[in-house]
Amino acid sequence: MNSSVPIPSFNDTAFLVLDKSGVVRAANDSAGRLWQTKPEALTGQLVVSLFAFEVTSNEPGWRESQWEVLIATSLGRPLTLQAQPFEPVPALDVRIELQAAHGPEAAYFARIGIPTTPAPVVAHAATSPKAEPVSSPSATPAVAASTTASQPSPGDSSEQGPALLAARGPLGFFDLDLTTGHVATSPAWKKMLGYGPAELADSHDAWRSLIHPEDTDALP
After folding, report:
1. pLDDT digit string (tens) for 29-42?
2. pTM for the complete prediction?
């Protein structure tokens, strides 16, 4: 026999205090409810690890690159992301905005707009242990920031994020367009081959010249 435990709907705002490396140093009660855990369990987590991304990697430096992109795309303006709760439930669409903070450990405030529509019901087996109530952290930081969400501008940061991650990320990749002969590459790809960003043309001929002669018969 199953018992259904409703996930609460949220109509308040989550706040995280982050250090310069993007590590959570404090969280309010709303953040705990959003990620369905105790607020203190969020401390010590990399903020980018709290969101679901379409592109992921285990390469060294990947999380740091995601953090750099998050700063570039959400500092002072909202960015749409998907928050991934600790419980096994679907990710939630949220809007995050970073604001500069000043303190010995705080570098940024992260304000996360939480959905106001009711969330789906998650069924738990009757034999599952009873969930612990969410408790407040020992000290919740005061945040003197406006709670009025700013409107995204045309071509807003949610579209710029992937491009910035491609430009700054540690992964090397190329995209060959056989129709036009144009090759789109990441700076990391050229760097792996010993080239600077402007030292190798983004063309089919330049890409072909990098292939070993014995492999050229199989090239497009």
Report:
1. 999 999 999 999 99
2. 0.56
